[in-house]
């Protein structure tokens, strides 16, 4: 898997038909790993449905057979858990409970 930079994305044919504006910031986590907060304004004639949005936006782990280094880094540094009773030796566990309050309940409404 090849990582696509914002510069590369902005200078391809992929950019112009779909996006009108972009705002982003790159932050570095405690362990030094970068991540981006990104807002894209889409060029559209009508509201998009979930399937159309899912065609552009996803959150997937890198495929370990294609990108083993990326998979290992994301699995090790960017995923919380397991913790609590499942792994009491986790650094976030105090008195048998996660300091970050994981696992969190699933909320279906805002």
Poorly predicted ranges:
none
Q: Fraction of residues in helices?
A: 10-25%
> In sequence order, what are the helices and strands, one letter per element?
HHEEHHEE
Instruction: Classify the secondary structure makeup into a structural class.
Output: alpha+beta
Topology:
Elements: H1 6-10, H2 15-18, E1 19-28, E2 34-42, H3 50-54, H4 68-77, E3 93-94, E4 97-98
Antiparallel strand pairs: 1-2, 3-4
What are the key terms here?
two-stranded antiparallel ribbon; extended; alpha+beta; 110 residues; 4 helices
Task: Tell me what the structure shows.
There is one protein chain. By secondary structure, the chain is α+β, with helices and mostly antiparallel strands. The chain has a domain at 6-61. Helix content is 22%, strand content 21%. The strands form two sheets. Strands 1-2 form a two-stranded antiparallel sheet. Strands 3-4 form a two-stranded antiparallel sheet.
Task: State the gist of this model.
The chain is α+β, with helices and mostly antiparallel strands and 110 residues long.
């Amino acid at each position: 898997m090849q990582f696509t930079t914002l510069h590369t994305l902005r200078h391809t044919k992929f950019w112009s038909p779909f996006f009108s504006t972009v705002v982003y910031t790159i932050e570095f986590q405690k362990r030094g790993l970068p991540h981006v907060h990104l807002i894209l304004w889409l060029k559209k004639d009508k509201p998009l449905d979930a399937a159309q949005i899912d065609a552009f936006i996803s959150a997937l782990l890198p495929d370990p057979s294609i990108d083993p280094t990326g998979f290992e880094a994301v699995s090790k540094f960017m995923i919380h858990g397991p913790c609590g009773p499942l792994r009491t030796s986790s650094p976030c566990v105090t008195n048998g409970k996660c300091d970050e309050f994981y696992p969190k309940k699933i909320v279906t409404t805002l």
